[in-house]
Amino acid sequence: MNSQHALNAYRQAGVQGAVMDASPHQLITMLMDGALDRIAAAKGAMERGETATEGEMIGKAISIIDNLRASLDHEQGGDLSRRLSDLYEYMENRLLEARRENDRSKLVEVSGLLRQIKSGWDDIPAEHR
After folding, report:
1. Predicted TM-score (pTM) of this structure
2. Which CATH class is domain 23-128?
3. For the chain, which terminal residue's Cβ has fewer other Cβ atoms within 10 angstroms, N or C?
């Protein structure tokens, strides 16, 4: 086993352990952080002209955002969860447009929207998590 493969295996084990030990609130935080990381990586790849990496990172960000949308509880969340679902769908579409049009500004827009949602999520008091 080469050192890079060993490092990747170690990281994967750490991620799996963190997921298993996380609360639902922490899992959503991890998803948001993951999407933001993938969008940032896509921006970097776009700037360097690395189209394959850009497409891969945008695809992963879309998948994560889709998981955020799927995790919404429409019974308990009511109108708020429906509006968040619509916003997540909008973000997914903007990411697709960013990829198709090679438009960095759309990545920046989605990142900003997701940061706003995450800020509100992070501000939820511990007793309500």
Report:
1. 0.84
2. mainly alpha
3. N
